Amino acid sequence: MLNLDFDKKKFTCKFDYCTGKATDLADPSLHVKAQEYKRRTSGMMKALSAEDAFKLPQTRGLFVTRKYDGENAMIFFDGETIISVNPGGTARVGLPCFDEAAELLKSAKVKSCILGAEIYVKEGASSAHPVQQVVRVLRSPPSKEQLERLGLAVFDVIEADGETVDSAANVFELLKKWFGKGNRVHPVEFEKTDKIDTVMERFTEWVIGEGAEGVVVRHDQAGWYKIKLRHNVDVAIIGYSEATDDRKGMLHDLLVAVMRDDGTFHEFTRVGGGFTEDDRRSIAADLKKRIVPSDYVAVNNDYVAYEMIKPGPVIEISCLDMIAERARGGPVKRMVLDWDGKRYSAVTRMPLVSVISPQYIRMRDDKDAVTDDVNIRQVSELVQVPEAEKSAHADDDPASEILERTVYTKVMKGNKMVRKLLMWKTNKKDRNDFPGYVVYLTDFSPNRQNPLERDIKISNDEKTAKKIFDQLAEKNFISGWEKAK
Questions:
Q1: Assuming Cys at both sites, which of 119, 152, 297, 374 could form a disulfide with 97, CB separation 3.0 to 4.6 Å?
Q2: Which helix (H) or strand (E) holds 200?
Q3: Confidence of residue 299 (pLDDT cuts 50, 70, 90)
Q4: How far is Cα 265 from Cα 354, in angstroms, rounded to an integer?
């Protein structure tokens, strides 16, 4: 039996609508259920562009549903009350659409159920950035009328009266039975079909014609598929890696970034697809001339360290989706970098997105690696990115000070190995969570099973830190290693 009690004193309430942390629910395992469901469905979901819809399985019994751009939430009903819990750990109760859903479920004699749904702006929504409109109302509703504009599109029945519902046909039969006559709450628009052509007809109608976020195709054996339009984004190249062996000298992939309003570069994604063979030769040759020092080491999926380059050139890429939340909740954080005109340094990790299926489109010779041309707003206008307008330096403590820096390289079997040794003063010794000095060794060797190894030593005394630095230098910078210029 579901326990939906909560400590109302710990929730913020306005217009009979209350929101709080899932940890303040009588049963905090509801949050775990929401996280596990999101993780499971994310794992099952395969993303396709409209151009790749032919890759859908040729099978009978497909269910195509409209995708709504709102807050994904798990809905819990105990026979009287509805509470939603999202994977990020926010619980909500008292929305007008929840009240309507509860009345419909009571009328249908449902004792308890767990549903998958999207809370979205149903009435009076503008076509621009609908998810931001939902978040603004849910976070701080300006009026009861604004809450009444929110709808609940239910797309899944996870449990009904304590029994698991596995069949898609049963899911949509129950949704139609329970919510078919609803107003603020309703089943997602759906159609059962045996033809991919019908899927694309609904895609054209809902996405192209009406501006929906996409469609989801569900089949009991073949899985779940998400079909969306691709998004195009202009980004600055900040690093690259070369291919190996017989493709040495050719581009493997690019590390690209968008810029925040404070002028910092925010790592966006790695781009390895969409290039012709000529692209891979010419881009690698051009970027080799732009290599610069960096106190930050980034590696690609093959554990090859990127050569960091002077920011630029700017390229246009496309991607199938951008996801701002991890499967278990919480933001996707990526490194923000400072560029002082000579070298990169790490600032902090801040929320951004996971990019699905990034592809190179073309060089943008008409754009430069400047804030106006590669701004983070390209992303935040499509996806709700926390702190997108916040300066990466807003919470800066006193800057750390590099006291010693030494880099050695060695070539073995055609691959370059790099050992970098740093010592810095944190200038944060008075804080309990920071030491006074840090000695940091990075050892990168593409020939090892674990290419990038790190060794970190700390001290609150400069003399001790210097002794550690000298010992590590003597141990690691031995015969065959050459000091980098």
A1: 152
A2: helix 196-203
A3: confident
A4: 16
Q: What pLDDT shows up at residue 280?
A: 96
Residue 169 forms part of a structural domain: yes
- The two three-digit tokens of residue 198, written as one number: 């019908």
Range 387-392 average pLDDT: 91
State how far the alpha carbon of 63 is from the alpha carbons of 179, 197, 352, 353, in Å: 18, 13, 32, 29
Looking at mean pLDDT, say which of 228-242, 416-430, 442-456 comes out highest. 228-242
**Banded pLDDT at 205 (limits 50, 70, 90):** very high
Preceding peptide of 313 cis, ω within 30°:
yes
- Give the span between the Cα atoms of 447 and 445, in whole angstroms: 5
> What's the average model confidence in pLDDT over 4-31?
90
For residue 137, the surrounding DSSP H or E stretch is helix 130-139
Listed in sequence order, the residues at least 6 apart from 325 whose beta carbon sits closer than 8 Å to its beta carbon are 87, 88, 331, 332
Coil, helix or strand at residue 3: coil
The DSSP secondary structure of 10-60, one letter per residue, reads: GSEEETTEEEEEGGGBS-THHHHHHHHHHHHHHHHEEEEEGGGGGGS---S
Q: What tokens were used for 220? A: 């009991």
Amino acid identity of residue 375, one-letter, is: N
Residue type, 402: I
Q: Which of 174, 193, 228 is the last residue of a domain?
A: 228
| Token pair belonging to 34 | 């929401």
Spatial separation of the C-alpha atoms in residues 151 and 385, rounded to whole Å = 22
DSSP 304: P
DSSP character for 209? Answer: I
| Same-domain status, 222 and 240 | no
DSSP assignment of 363-402: E-TT--SSTTTSBTHHHHTTS--TTTTS-TTTT--SPPEE
Do the domain assignments include residue 375? yes
- In whole angstroms, what is the distance from residue 112 CA to residue 170 CA? 16
Answer whether 288's CB lies under 8 Å from 306's CB: no
Pairing mode of beta strands 17-21, 90-93: antiparallel
Q: Say yes or no to pLDDT of 358 above 80.
A: yes
SS (H, E, C) 226-288: EEECCEEEEEEEEEEEECCHHHCCCEEEEEEEEECCCCCEEEEEEECCCCCHHHHHHHHHHHH
| Sign of the dihedral defined by the CA atoms of residues 348, 354, 359, 363, in that order | negative
Task: Report whether 264 contacts 344 (CB < 8 A).
Answer: no
Find the CATH number of the domain harbouring 12.
3.30.470.30
Residue 393: per-residue pLDDT: 85
**Is 355's pLDDT higher than 60?**
yes
* pLDDT (tens digit per residue) in 105-148: 999 999 999 999 999 998 655 555 567 788 889 988 999 999 99
Taken in order 182, 187, 193, 199, the sign of the CA dihedral is positive
Q: How many domains does the chain have?
A: 3
- Is 341 inside any structural domain? yes
Statement: residue 65 has pLDDT above 80: yes
